[in-house]
Design goal:
Blueprint: E1 9-17, E2 27-32, H1 35-47, E3 51-55, E4 72-83, E5 89-106, E6 111-117, H2 127-148, H3 153-161, H4 165-175, H5 180-187, H6 192-245, H7 249-262, H8 267-281, H9 288-302, H10 315-325, H11 330-345, E7 353-357, H12 364-375, E8 379-383, H13 391-394, H14 407-415, E9 421-425, H15 438-445, E10 454-455, E11 462-463, E12 469-474, H16 482-486, E13 488-492, H17 498-516, E14 524-526, H18 528-537, H19 545-564, E15 570-572, H20 577-581, E16 596-597, E17 599-606, E18 609-621, E19 626-629, H21 634-649, H22 660-663, E20 664-670, H23 683-695, E21 698-699, E22 703-705, E23 708-709, E24 715-716, H24 721-731, E25 735-739, H25 751-756, E26 758-762, H26 766-772, E27 785-787, E28 793-795
Length: 799
């Protein structure tokens, strides 16, 4: 139906289009969902009037205003309205003419617009120019149509037969797939020639876009085809593999790739793992190389590449944990807390590597585990005792059968984090042979500057060990290579004193053993004198392992009595020990029963603590021979020679025959000949005993001494003063002569010992003689005393 002239302008219901542009004489199908738009359609239908369609500038605006719309739209006739079940409507309209809205208003129910018709400007160009434009448009359109290859034939036919330039431009602009704002620009051109030129540029641009899109689509299609081909072939191979071997190995390959992508590891690591997976996918099922490759891939995926525990170190809590687990060891605890403080202030710090050095059974391994608890880190222990193959540290190359990572990376993998605490136990017992030297391999592991790029032979990729904390333990420092020892800070754990053993047993060992044997504190108790008795008469060690076994044995016997019904409650006392544990294995170390000539109490340090060691000197008629017995080492023999030289130089001072070394034979003997002895600390003891034997002056039985002596008589510093003084205290010694340079070491001596024993610092051997030796006429018949398990004093009796 044609419009009357009176309808060339007026007010009509208006509908804002989103993403669409209506053109004159073109059929447009649109979906209408906004309430005001539906009401505008109903108003147009009810009044049988056209409706004004104008495009929005921004399609996201829900309730547009006049400023949100383009100035030129199209007046249209509603041809068909189809109501949808959800309330929306599908509408078919046909454009009548271009129109410009003079006023755009909201009536409350819907929009209305007052419009005026936009006439095309007269064409003043020659016919030949118009014909040229039409041909140019058709040429560009044909190129565009050939590029997109999906235009309907009726559109192509219409373009080829339409001779009206204005209608041709509108038709092509309406039907070509172009952005709505470009179409709107064509609609707004009232000059037909200008409209044609704009259309030609638009066709050229859209053709280029279509060409680029075709290239992208073609490449994408090729890749999709390749992926589909790969997928198809893989699916066939899966079926074949399942039929032949009854498994789904190709699914495993996909899983490996997915796990690798999810791995929190450097890109070069992922790339190497992907390469290995691809190699595995091409290997025949059941091939040995496939097993090696699969093991390698699984190991790489199991390693915690960048996974760390972010625990915060609490120093006060760490102090409580250390005090809970260990009695004494104050200096060791202090050093551990200093290390933990560094990690508390700087969690990424590369702290010193501690080497816990001490005799067996003092708790070195337990300390390492407790440090891990204090730091909130996972704990792994590696036993190095007897290890003699470098591959145990660096791993085996994966070409070998049974190849695997070394113990370091295995510990990291088992911990599941890159910053665990790893305890390298018994580092002093590493061996070496033709297979390599493990201690040399540890040089890189224990160097914070090198272990950032630790390379395991199996892994063949650098792994960062700098975030892990390493603690080592050792019973001896002599067997640790110097370069390896230089990388560690040695923390010494001395043997426990008698009092420390008692407290450890009472607080830790006894409760633990009672529970482990199915007992409780109500039906099994240990008297204090029983614990002292075990320490004094049934164990002789620096640590507490034998003490624990003895207590465990007593708990077992108590459990037997209770299980048999012979006792409901067992209290173990010192008097019961011989009956339950047998005869005493050790006798208490006591001083001499009387003052004797040429016999003196020396002090020795052993791995199990200090001991009293009597030195005996006998002077006989002879030809000047010197005999040394008692299983003495070279250093101790040299100390005896130095003592003889000093006595010869000072013979006249002490009234000794200057020619004694010519006319007398001297026999120097250390008791307990079965025990090897060495070291310079017996120098002053030998010197004093020798002067006693040559002068006939008795040595006081209640004194002991330790110190190295020079040929000039200077008394030099020694070690192990804490252990030696404890042995002297147990044996009933009242005074100990020590080197003057060892005075600072008295701070380490047990308080009980310092209160009971007098320490006399000396600089020269001459300072000892008059204090230690009695005048010839004096004799002291008093019997010495010693302290036993029940803390009572007894008179010593020599057998």
């Amino acid at each position: 139906m044609l419009l009357n002239e009176k309808l060339l302008s007026g007010t009509f219901p208006a509908l804002a289009l989103r993403g669409l542009v209506a053109f004159p004489n073109m059929l447009l199908t649109l979906d209408v969902g906004r309430k005001k738009s539906i009401l505008a359609l109903e108003s147009a239908m009810d009044k049988n009037t056209p409706i004004y369609l104008v495009a929005q500038k921004d399609i996201l605006v829900e309730e547009p205003k006049a400023s949100d719309l383009y100035d030129i739209g199209c007046l249209c006739r509603v041809r068909q309205v189809l109501k949808m079940p959800d309330g929306d409507a599908k509408v078919l309209v046909k454009g009548v003419y271009r129109a410009r809205h003079i006023n755009f208003a909201d009536t409350g129910a819907h929009y209305v617009a007052t419009i005026e018709k936009c006439e095309d400007k007269p064409i003043r160009n020659r016919e030949v120019y118009i014909e040229s434009l039409i041909r140019r448009i058709r040429t560009e359109f044909d190129r565009f149509a050939n590029t997109i290859q999906n235009l309907p034939n009726d559109i192509v036919l219409n373009v080829a037969t339409n001779e009206n330039l204005s209608a041709l431009c509108d038709f092509i602009a309406f039907n070509m797939p172009a952005p709505y704002d470009d179409k709107q620009y064509v609609l707004e051109q009232l000059n037909v020639v200008t409209r044609a030129k704009v259309l030609i540029e638009l066709l050229s641009k859209e053709r280029e876009v279509a060409e680029i899109d075709n290239k992208i689509s073609q490449k994408t299609r090729i890749r999709i085809d390749e992926n589909q081909r790969d997928y198809y072939l893989k699916e066939q191979m899966k079926v074949i593999s399942d039929e032949l071997y009854g498994d789904d190995s190709l699914g495993e390959i996909d899983d490996f790739h997915n796990l690798t992508e999810a791995l929190n590891a450097p890109d070069e690591v992922k790339e190497k793992i992907h390469t290995e997976i691809n190699k595995l996918s091409k290997m025949p099922q059941g091939a040995h190389e496939g097993t090696v490759s699969r093991n390698y891939i699984e190991t790489c995926l199991a390693l915690p590449w960048n996974k760390v525990d972010n625990a915060v170190v609490d120093i006060k809590k760490a102090q409580k944990i250390l005090d809970r687990d260990f009695y004494g060891l104050n200096k060791v605890k202090e050093r551990i807390l200093e290390m933990l403080s560094v990690y508390a202030l700087s969690p990424e710090s590369k702290g010193n590597i501690l080497c816990l050095y001490g005799p067996p059974g003092v708790g070195k391994t337990s300390i390492g585990k407790t440090i891990a608890e204090c730091m909130g880190r996972r704990y792994q222990r590696i036993s190095l005792g007897g290890m003699h193959d470098e591959a145990e540290i660096r791993g085996h190359r994966k070409t070998y059968i049974g190849a695997m990572t070394g113990k370091i990376l295995t510990a990291i993998k088992n911990a599941g984090t890159s910053n665990p605490l790893i305890l390298l136990d018994e580092i002093d017992k590493l061996g070496s042979d033709y297979k390599g030297d493990p201690s040399s391999a540890l040089l890189e592991v224990l160097d914070p500057e090198q272990n950032v790029n630790f390379t395991d032979n199996f892994l063949e990729m650098p792994y960062d060990l700098s975030r892990a904390v390493f603690i080592t333990t050792a019973n001896s420092l002599d067997t640790i290579p110097a370069p390896l020892l230089d990388r560690m800070e040695v923390v010494s754990l001395d043997g426990y004193t008698r009092e420390e053993k008692f407290n450890i047993a009472k607080r830790h060992i006894v409760p633990r053993e009672i529970i482990s044997h199915g007992l409780n504190t109500k039906n099994c108790k240990f008297a204090d004198n029983a614990i002292y008795g075990i320490i004094d008469f049934y164990t002789r060690e620096a640590g507490v392992r034998k003490l624990q076994r003895a207590i465990g044995s007593l708990c077992g016997k108590a459990a037997k009595q209770i299980a048999e019904g012979s006792s409901q409650k067992v209290t173990l006392k010192a008097a019961d020990l011989e009956k339950l544990l047998g005869h005493k294995k050790y006798r208490p170390e006591v001083i001499l029963p009387a003052d004797e000539i040429g016999v003196i109490n020396g002090l020795a340090w052993t791995a199990v603590g200090g001991e009293i060691m009597q030195m005996e000197v006998a002077v006989l008629e002879g030809s000047g021979k010197t005999v040394l017995t008692g299983n003495l080492g070279d250093v101790m023999k040299e100390s005896a020679q130095a003592a003889i030289t000093f006595v010869r130089a000072n013979a006249s001072k002490y009234g000794i025959d200057p020619d004694f070394y010519k006319t007398r034979d001297i026999h120097i003997h250390a008791t307990e000949s079965a025990v090897p002895k060495d070291g310079p600390s017996a120098g002053v003891t030998i010197t004093t005993a020798l002067i006693s034997a040559l002068t006939g002056r008795a040595v006081r039985r209640d004194i002991a001494m330790t110190g190295e002596v020079s040929i000039r008589g200077r008394v030099l510093a020694i070690g192990g003063l804490k252990e030696k003084s404890m042995a002297a205290y147990r044996g009933g010694v009242k005074q100990i002569f020590i080197p003057f340079d060892n005075v600072p070491d008295l701070d380490e001596v047990d308080k009980t010992v310092r209160e009971a024993v007098e320490f006399i610092p000396v600089k020269y051997a001459t300072d000892i003689v008059d204090r230690a030796l009695l005048p010839i006429e004096e004799k002291n018949p008093q019997k010495p005393e010693y302290i036993t398990a029940d803390n009572t004093k007894h008179t010593a009796i020599r057998n």
